[in-house]
Amino acid sequence: MSLYNICAIVTVYFPKEINVIYISELSKQVSSIIITDNTPNRDSAALFKNIDKSIYIPNKSNLGLSCSFNKCLKIEEVRLSDYILFMDQDSLIPDNLIKILIDDYNWLKKNGYNVGCIGPIYYEKNAKKIMISRFKKKLKKNIYSVKTVITSSMLTSYKNLEKIGFWNENIFLDLADWDLCWRFIKSKFICCMTGNAILTHSLGKSVKKIGLIHVKEGTAIREYYQTRDCLKLLFKPYTPLKFRVCFILMITIRPIIHVLFLSEKHLRLKYIILGICDFFKKKDGTFQGECSYKGGFE
User: Fold this and answer.
1) CA atoms within 13 A of residue 32's CA, in its CB half-sphere
2) Spatial contact of 256 and 249, defined as CB atoms under 8 Å apart
């Protein structure tokens, strides 16, 4: 067991037995786990009752990623920890992942780097390939400064989060980690990725090959949140220029590809249009009809 007090915060949504297995493996490498469940109208405490050192919080509604994390950050056990690890339910951590993240984080700090957060490179199961940021600067062998770190296996501290105002609750889901990283960078921190450990992770429920490109296929309702939140970030002063271009493509070219080639075409188009409308209406939080949507968030 580590000499440090490490608290993991895991968000779940309609959790299954496989997610319990993943979280059980995580519990072997951390001091405590907070499981925050965003499943509407459900309490799955029985599912997680045998996970050691865990606290289960049934939110009974979908608070979104940022709000759910911020709720957990108010817990004293989390605030007093040396490190905080954010996770989602679909990631399988390798042996010694947490130790490697902490060792690399501490090496960077000792060598004068103001580290906001660090995460591992990851193997994306649907695409069947190792994922590492294109926008990176080498700091040491296998350690890079990057513009974004994915939520799952992101290691940071309460003190760091406090300095940037914690997670941005105006960003509901997929882009919350990008927003967090850019606010770290704005506050003179760096965000890092290490290749000394590899996380096994899934983005979406599948990847579809269309010509020469691979398109991540998530459930239809995610189109709503991705559209609404990329429009929000498009106009944030701290969003990097390269990502502004990416967001312009996300609201112009990508919807056409998704509606033409992915499943549930009409439903996707509906959510894209609603996401645009609700951005202009300045709506935050969960989509009003989500409780009746049974597709999940894979």
Assistant:
1) 16
2) no
